[in-house]
Amino acid sequence: MHFCIQWHDWFYQETGAPLDSAGAAARRRRPRDRRRPPPAPPTPSTPQRISTEQLAEALRPHLLSPKRMWAMGYPLEIDSTSSKAVVYINPPPRPRPLQLTTWDVNAPEFVPGGSQSDSGRGSLGSTPRSDSDEEADAVEHLCVRCDKMFRMTREGEYLVEETCSYHWGRVCGSDSRYTCCNMPLGSKGCSAARFHVWSGTRPGMNGPLEGYVRARSPRGGVYALDAEMCYTTAGLELASIAVIAADGRLVYKSLVKPSSPVVDHNTRFSGIRPRDLARATKTLRDVQNDILGFVGNDTILIGHALDNDLRALKLLHSAVVDTCALYPHSRGFPLRRSLRALSEELLGRSVQRGSAGHSPLEDARAAMDLVLLKVHEERASRARLSNQLPILQPYDPLVSSA
């Protein structure tokens, strides 16, 4: 009996667990939780960096052809001597409710023999404009949030101020529900804004578009960039940009002051707030000059849906790698996988999750890492293939006849 007591005391002294009969009984009475623990989130990964020269060589097969760039909505130059561009925009892949549009036969576009580019002001001179003149000179836009038509003057003024009721989420699932509120397609919007907004382009041919620039001399290098935009009276305009190098270091970052009045800062997605643009000093022209200081005509630019960024930046460039094309949607073009879904699935990284909006620096690094991941996968695949092939020896008749 004395030995048992000594062994009992020695065991609890070694394990550091004090003798507590009441606690032990409570633990014995506690039901065991047989539920499986939730799966741990995937560990964020950063692909191994390689030299810029190696990366540039590995990416040459993935450069978009001019035909593919045209189909994806990239700006292309009209000729090498001008600063004008043309853009072809595919119709949006998401379902849109039918709109009842009334056509004004007195609009300038419908006057027989009239020019579509005629604004209707040439014959007016200094005569004061009437309300009917303003109506005839109005431009009709499709709101990219609620899919309703609205009208603005060519100077960017709203003819009617109407609240925009919209869903900010995507339509997903077999039952076509919005991700923002889980309501079915066609339901009343769960968010409201003061004005309707448009993107600055329309489905089909757009152009000629002014103010585009391009690099004229080679500089080499590989960079990933991401831009954030806000809605102005002229459509989407550049508000923030970040550029990183192949080794992940930040090369350029800047806020940009839009040239037209801001209608909506698009904070949920852009992360831009009024106070940010209040301290922005650079214009689009300033940013273009800065970018062309290190981007040449042979520099490879990487991005996710890079066509949107180059249109906002008004940059013509032909050496581009787009992660939308590198990791295509299972249902094919023009559907695109989101950067958030690709980062979570392939990198185990969560991006674009906060309510503060997107970070151009975070998105640029995610795009660069997705490209590096593809390059490493292709290298590993080639290495496995070379190891599986038998080593063929040259035919030697003397050895064979022996």
From TrEMBL:
Q: In Gene Ontology terms, what is a biological process of this protein?
A: negative regulation of gene expression
Q: Can you list the GO cellular component terms from the UniProt entry?
A: nucleus
Query: Which keywords accompany this UniProt record?
Result: Exonuclease, Hydrolase, Nuclease, Nucleus
Q: Which InterPro entries match?
A: REX1-like_exo, REXO1/3/4-like, Ribonucl_H, RNaseH-like_sf, RNaseH_sf
Which residue intervals define the domain Exonuclease in the entry?
A: 221-380
Predominant location of this chain? nucleus
For molecular function, the Gene Ontology terms on record are:
exonuclease activity; nucleic acid binding
Biased region (Basic residues) positions are 26-37
**Residues that span the membrane, as ranges:** none
Q: Where is this region: Disordered?
A: 21-51, 106-135
Sequence ranges of Polar residues compositional bias: 114-129
Q: Where in the cell is it found?
A: Nucleus
Query: What family does the entry list?
Result: Belongs to the REXO1/REXO3 family.
This protein is called Putative exonuclease GOR-like protein
Q: Which organism is it from?
A: Papilio xuthus (Asian swallowtail butterfly)
